[in-house]
Amino acid sequence: MKPVTSVLLEICRETTVPERPQSLWGCNLSLKMATSGRCGETVLCSVTDAIVCERGFIFDEKSGNPIFHIDEYPVFPKYVIDYYNSGMVYPSYGVQTVYDLRIPEMKKIHIEHGLAFTHFNVVYGHWLIEMLPKLLAFRDVALKTGIRAPIIIPRMPGCFIETFVREVCPGFEFVIYNPNIEYVAVEKLFLISNTENFWLNPYFCSEYEFYGTKPLNDDSGDDQRIFIVRPDDHVKRNSIKNFADIESFLLEKGFKNLDPSRLGSLREQARIFNKAKVIVGEFSSSLHNAIFSRKGSQIIALNFVNDVQNQIAVMRGHKIGYIVPTRGPVHWADKEPYQLEMSDVRNAVEIATSHR
Fold it and tell me: Where does CATH 3.40.50 sit in the chain?
């Protein structure tokens, strides 16, 4: 017997976005740029008799089959579905083998209804683009329609997700499970469909904007020029060879160092990035926080990895430029430190800080 699925509510309609972001300088044009994106329709949907396990994988409780779509709507990013279908196994996540090999041995938590929105990739940038939109949408839907359901969260020691979810959705109920020894059986599971290829509908952008401008109880986050430093920058300096020279130059130009991982809350991160007019940082999850930055912000990315920062720039109306390492764009898997030309850094900062 197949699970009963249904589409309950249209959250936002399909739309398209511009072909490319606004460029701070012509060097952008030599790089792969974001092409015209399709922001598919986003819906709230449901499935009966589902299991949520590991870091958010969903199975039909009776058949054991994975649930990746509700009707024609995907409820996971395409790469997550591709990983599963191609047989790629992550032993620590339990992908592909989790249902057959682990469910019988795990403790069952039974609930009547709940919302699932996570998946195995808990890198902050992926959470910010792939999971937080679903959370913001569900919060909005719940407030407008009265639909309520406990939010299901895998507990992972040292991980930011549980803390940030509680912050984003105060007053909601939560079901927390240990993915190593527990799974959640849900009679009616709510899901929110996934956006296509990381393109976010303008509806979500307005939610990010609202979250970033909601006031805090203090005056923090008023720095208009920020330089993002990652936790290892001041310890190992193992990414950019001449990091110290770049940092010294930027401090002279009135930039303030910011390590987002040291901030106490997601709202604090959002407000700081929303206030900033010029942001410089190595291409990373931390730089993706620019999704909270207002229209017209100037973004300087050190290195170029993929189109995600371009897509954020398109969606939020930023002007963006890349300083490419002397040996060309450096991928995540390349651990060799790289060099940036200081003349490129100086020119980029001059353009960004003088732009009107």
Answer: 225-354
